[in-house]
Design goal:
Layout (H helix, E strand, L loop, with lengths): L1 E6 L9 E3 L7 E3 L8 H12 L3 E6 L7 H11 L3 E6 L4 H14 L4 E6 H5 L1 H7 L4 E3 L4 H14 L3 H4 L5 E4 L5 E3 L37 E3 L4 E2 L19 E2 L2 H15 L3 E4 L7 H13 L8 E6 L6 H9 L2 E9 L3 H7 L8 H10 L3 E8 L6 H16 L5 E6 L7 H9 L23 H12 L5 H10 L5 H26 L7 H5 L3
Parallel strand pairs: 1-4, 1-5, 5-6, 6-7, 10-13, 13-14, 14-15, 15-16, 16-17
Antiparallel strand pairs: 2-3, 7-8, 8-9, 11-12
Helix pairs in contact: 1-6, 8-9, 9-10, 10-12, 13-15, 15-17
This protein binds iron/sulfur cluster.
Length: 510
């Protein structure tokens, strides 16, 4: 039996590719970042270990055109095809599924991902998919489902494992109930790097200062906080689970010693905290992995790591620390249920900088309630943090309701959504009614990304060189050149719907 885990290339009218995999916020990019879809890679590994033939089919990372991807898939003729959905590409996926089912009527198409998980009937009505898998734990779910399909012709009526909406032979839909995760994360195998052609993802990724880089098998599935209203990891259907520290350390050791990896990023919603974070950092030191010239990166939250832990992580050679800042006013943070307080930001960043890490802030603009004062506050606070050297890099996005998260449902309830066409949810423009003109938010995006070109910011980076840390020199002379390319791309993507542009502003977009 052959199972394909497939990511069709999605290219828009501007020649930009949609980044769907592993990306909590899908966006279209001309110079894409190829992200290894970790859970799907673990699912592929699991199925291979169970003796199934696995076709790892990431058309984006493999640089295929849509037609080439489609032709190859037809030639492979898998028995089962697994796809991952998210709001802005749903219409594309529905059309693609119909095309695939027409060419391969006997292949079973399974739709997964956060959008269809929350709207399973919609996908079953809009296309010919055979089922929707209503869980982010695709590895556990497929590991139970695939052998059953293999051994039972009547799987559509007889399968009892939870979390599926199945199309029966008579066209009716059958739900097997809500998914419950009963197995510990340690049961699922770590990613088989060769199976997923790990080098396809090792170079084009802005999170890596050194290459080849890679994503670790996440130590936390979904998010241990899981309450931010805009986030896909927020939902009654989601539970978080944790991998043991020793197992993760074993993987890091293999990645460094056997694959020569120079930077490892763990994309868990939020990485370990407290005892596990310290055990992990100490484990890296005890195994001598901190001296192998490899940097480590994580997502964390303000207030999750104390100075003692950060100090140990610095010693272990952690570098890239991604923090969800979102906005600099408490009203917004409370409305988003962010669960951190602004007064703790400076200390947390100070410790990270003091122990040699490069904090990266993620910010959003365009919440449906955001006033000019709140927006100005965010821009000036972000400037302060960047100019003072407390944060090194940033990423600004237009807050877009997606995947029927609580924020998405709230926008529908409040009547502020300006469109219900999923193609408009691609994060390239604001799609909610706001108290001030949309141009003000686009301008704020431009202001924040332009910090990278400001003399004060550049001077601060030069001052870091006096510490003679290798990563600071790399930051300025290697990374910044790549970063400038990406900053120009972000400014173009996020402000192209701005109506009032001066000639000077237009020139950035060339
Ligand atoms: S902390 Fe981050 S990953 Fe977790 S729910 Fe909030 S935004 Fe999502």
């Amino acid at each position: 039996m052959k199972i394909s885990i497939s990511y069709p290339p999605i290219i828009n009218d501007h020649g930009q590719k949609a980044m769907v995999s592993q990306n909590r916020n899908v966006q279209f990019f001309k110079e894409p970042t190829y992200l290894l879809p970790v859970t799907y890679a673990q699912a592929a590994t699991y199925l291979k270990q169970m003796g199934y033939e696995v076709y790892w089919d990431d058309g984006n990372a493999q640089l295929k055109s849509f037609d080439k991807w489609f032709e190859d898939l037809i030639n492979e003729s898998p028995n089962v095809i697994v796809l991952e959905s998210t709001t802005p590409v749903m219409k594309f996926y529905w059309q693609t599924i119909d095309k695939v089912k027409k060419a391969l009527p006997n292949s079973i198409v399974i739709m997964t991902g956060y959008h269809s998980m929350r709207m399973p009937e919609e996908t079953m009505q809009k296309c010919a998919a055979d089922m929707v898998l209503r869980s982010s734990n695709v590895d556990f779910a497929l590991h139970r489902l695939i052998p059953f399909i293999h051994e039972n012709d009547n799987w559509r009526t007889d399968y009892l494992g939870e979390g599926l909406l199945i199309r029966l032979d008579n066209g009716q839909l059958r739900s097997t109930g809500d998914f419950r995760q009963v197995e510990p994360l340690d049961n699922v195998p770590l990613v088989d790097r060769d199976l997923v052609n790990w080098e396809d993802y090792a170079f084009e990724n802005g999170n890596f200062l050194q290459t080849p880089g890679t994503y670790a098998s996440s130590v936390i599935r979904d998010c241990m906080f899981g309450k931010c209203t805009f986030c896909r990891y927020n939902g009654p259907d989601l539970t978080f689970s944790m991998m043991s520290v020793e197992r993760s350390l074993d993987e890091y050791e293999r990645l460094i010693n056997e694959h020569g990896v120079k930077e490892i990023f763990d994309d868990s919603g939020v990485w370990y905290r407290g005892k596990e974070a310290r055990q992990f950092a100490q484990g890296i030191i005890d195994r001598g992995l901190h001296k192998k010239g490899c940097y480590f990166g994580i997502n964390t939250r303000f207030e999750y790591l104390d100075e003692e832990t950060i100090k140990l992580m610095g010693k272990a050679n952690f570098r890239f620390i991604l923090l969800g800042y979102e906005a600099a006013d408490n009203v917004t943070l409370i409305k988003l249920n962010k669960g951190y307080q602004l007064q703790h930001v400076d200390n947390c960043l100070k410790w990270m900088t003091k122990y040699g890490m490069h904090p990266h802030l993620t910010i959003m603009v365009g919440y449906y309630w955001q006033t000019q004062k709140q927006l100005d506050n965010t821009v000036s606070e972000v400037k302060r943090l960047m100019f003072s050297g407390l944060a090194r890099t940033l990423q600004v996005t237009l807050c877009t309701p997606l995947d029927y998260t609580p924020y998405h449902k709230e926008c529908i309830k409040e009547g502020v959504l300006l469109t219900d066409d999923y193609n408009d949810f691609d994060m390239s423009k604001l799609i909610v009614k706001t108290p001030i003109p949309h141009d003000q938010y686009y301008k704020a995006v431009r202001d924040m990304y332009s910090i990278a070109f400001h003399p004060k910011f550049i001077l601060r980076q030069l001052l870091f060189l006096t510490s003679f840390k290798k990563k600071d020199w790399q930051f300025l002379f290697t990374y910044s050149i790549r970063a400038i390319r990406r900053v120009r791309q972000h400014i173009f993507n996020l402000t192209r719907h701005e109506t009032s542009k001066s000639p000077e502003k237009m020139s950035v977009e060339k």
